[in-house]
């Protein structure tokens, strides 16, 4: 009995402590106004003091969420948090946001000054075909301010239960969800967490038809953008509600897409001057050449407006006539021409990496934002085509699509299904030669004491494509500074030129000369770091903690060769030892071989990646491997004056 009462006291104390983390709207502790930094996430520009919500069903079985959020501003950069944007699916009154209250709280001397938001400054905005947004800016916000927002979110669909994200880009001192689920509604409740919950309980109030869940979490660090990660949404800590019964299925979503006038309704509309284009295509007897002709015609005619949507915004006729469109419009035009030319084709609808990958257990439109075309080659193989990329080809799956879940749609057969994309194109990357970077450095010490030489680099497959995309985006000057010199002010690059830029069947080749100051050398010793122009960049895994999974997207092999001539009057004092290191699961192999041949140091590094994805749980081993590998890459050749 004593144990029972002790348990009740402990639970009561926990609830009191948790409730103390939030406050009524408009009531604030002066200590929060005087707060100058976040004690658990140093350097944050602002911090969420609390973010709490209560979700329940109404008598008509609509779902209502009452949410209250308060943010502390630490510096001028943090004042941008005053720009509030609340997005919701409101195109067909699916969802709505009402009862908005917002205010800014400042401490002036010892006086608390409250500036409420003028309701006339709240604006409604159309985001796209499905989404709407409520937009406003809090007044009188400056360093030291506290802002708070309270609103009601509502949906009339009983299975449209809102997920709850404990984590965001700002650190959160406290986050709590109280969720009541009516009898008769069934959800798989998925917890994505890397921290232990402060409160994790559920109960059924006496006489109630709902089970109430309470979850809370404290001192949640702000999510940071990390190298080689998926979208932020794929990695945030939160509670996710997935209907366990047939509220929505992927086939039903596929049928809705086919029936949508801005998708399926566009596919059979005639396009401007298409008769001649189809006649020219049908004059080509080889099926693969016909596909290549239509793909290149669309790719070279239409310009991508850099927008990804799962549907057509302006209509295919207008997009084709204006020669510009979003990714789905361009690829639906390609699909239309392929079908008109008698080519068997279907469609794949997906969520891109930066938007958020489709979840097998969560059928919804929320993560759909792009359409590409699929054409079978034989019973096992098929092309996956995206005509929006300048360097994409008809017969190589764009690397951005590798490994993603995709909704397959065949408008002609009216069949749909979600499949993990394990096409021959993806499988081929694991069995054939992966994308390769090959580097040859030929250098020696000149009369001025500088390392001087020439470099040849070749990049194949996806390495070639990604490098050309970077070059197009930043230009030659920044490419040399960022990609080749990597910010090294002691390095000078001259005479750079590309070869095979227009021949996608050949590796991309680069040739250039360089000179580099050897700043660590003195009158007795010369130190040479052979980690030059490798294409590896700085070590991406410096941080001790990792918040997201790692995705290299495609397999890589680096083959780095160097010849360093020893100048007259010097001899080799030390060279790095030959060594091989291997990840425990054999997914990465690093080999280093060095030797001397007639006064020349010969260097060879080989790095082979046999795996593209690692979970955050595998990060410690991956981080340690990269730390060791980069130390070995940067180990120096030492020459001594003879």
Automatic annotation (TrEMBL):
Residues 65-221 form the DUF3857 domain. Residues 1-22 form the signal peptide. Keywords: Signal. This is DUF3857 domain-containing protein.
């Amino acid at each position: 009995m004593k144990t029972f009462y002790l348990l009740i006291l402990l639970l009561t104390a926990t609830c009191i402590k948790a409730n103390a983390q939030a406050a009524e709207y408009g009531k604030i502790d002066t200590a929060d106004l005087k707060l100058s930094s976040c004690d658990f996430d140093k350097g944050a520009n602002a911090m969420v003091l609390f973010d709490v919500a209560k979700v329940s069903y109404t008598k008509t079985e609509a779902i209502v969420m009452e949410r209250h959020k308060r943010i502390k501003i630490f510096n001028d950069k943090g004042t941008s948090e005053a720009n509030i944007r609340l997005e919701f699916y409101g195109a067909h009154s699916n969802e709505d946001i009402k009862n908005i209250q917002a205010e800014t709280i400042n401490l002036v001397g010892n006086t608390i000054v409250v500036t409420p938001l003028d309701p006339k400054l709240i604006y409604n905005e159309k985001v796209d075909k499905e989404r709407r947004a409520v937009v406003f800016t809090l007044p009188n916000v400056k360093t030291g301010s506290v802002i708070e927002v309270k609103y009601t979110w509502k949906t009339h669909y009983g299975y449209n239960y809102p997920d709850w994200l404990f984590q965001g880009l700002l650190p959160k001192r406290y986050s709590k969800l109280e969720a009541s689920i009516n009898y008769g509604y069934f959800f798989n409740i998925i917890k994505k967490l890397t921290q232990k919950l402060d409160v994790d309980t559920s109960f059924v109030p006496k006489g109630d038809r709902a089970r109430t869940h309470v979850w809370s979490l404290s001192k949640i660090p702000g999510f940071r953008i990390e190298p080689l990660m998926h979208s932020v949404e794929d990695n945030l800590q939160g509670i996710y509600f997935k209907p366990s019964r047939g509220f929505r299925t992927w086939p039903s979503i596929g049928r809705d897409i086919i029936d949508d006038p801005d998708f399926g309704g566009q596919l059979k509309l005639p396009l401007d001057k298409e008769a001649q284009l189809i006649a020219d295509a049908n004059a080509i007897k080889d099926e693969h050449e016909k596909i290549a002709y239509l793909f290149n015609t669309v790719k070279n005619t239409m310009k991508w407006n850099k927008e990804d949507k799962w549907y057509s915004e302006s209509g295919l006729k207008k997009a084709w006539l204006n020669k510009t469109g979003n990714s789905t419009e361009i690829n639906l035009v390609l699909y239309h021409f392929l079908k008109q030319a008698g080519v068997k084709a279907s469609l794949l609808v997906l969520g891109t990496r930066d938007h958020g990958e489709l979840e097998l257990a969560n059928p919804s439109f929320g993560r759909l934002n792009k359409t590409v075309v699929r054409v079978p080659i034989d019973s096992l193989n098929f092309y996956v085509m995206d005509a929006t990329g300048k360097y994409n080809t008809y017969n190589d799956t764009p690397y951005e699509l590798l490994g993603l879940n995709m909704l397959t749609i065949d408008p002609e057969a009216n069949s749909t299904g979600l499949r993990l994309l394990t096409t021959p194109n993806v499988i081929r990357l694991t069995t054939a030669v992966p994308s390769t970077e090959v580097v040859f450095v030929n250098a020696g010490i000149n009369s001025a004491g500088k390392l001087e030489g020439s470099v040849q680099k070749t990049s194949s497959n996806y390495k070639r494509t990604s490098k050309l995309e970077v070059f197009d985006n930043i230009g030659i000057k920044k490419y040399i500074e960022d990609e080749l010199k990597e910010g090294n002010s002691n390095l000078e690059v001259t005479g750079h030129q590309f070869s095979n830029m227009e021949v996608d069947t050949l590796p991309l080749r680069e040739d250039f000369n360089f000179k580099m100051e050897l700043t660590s050398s003195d009158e007795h010793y010369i130190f040479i770091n052979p980690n030059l122009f490798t294409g590896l960049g700085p070590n991406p895994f410096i941080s001790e903690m990792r918040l997201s999974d790692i995705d290299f997207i495609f397999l890589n092999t680096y083959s780095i060769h160097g010849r360093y001539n020893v100048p007259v009057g010097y001899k080799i004092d030390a060279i790095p030892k030959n060594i091989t290191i291997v990840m425990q699961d054999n997914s990465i192999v690093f080999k280093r071989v060095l030797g001397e041949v007639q006064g020349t140091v010969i260097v060879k590094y080989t790095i082979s990646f046999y795996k593209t994805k690692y979970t955050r749980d595998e990060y410690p081993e991956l981080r340690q491997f990269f730390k060791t590998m980069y130390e070995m890459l940067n180990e120096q050749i030492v020459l001594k004056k003879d």
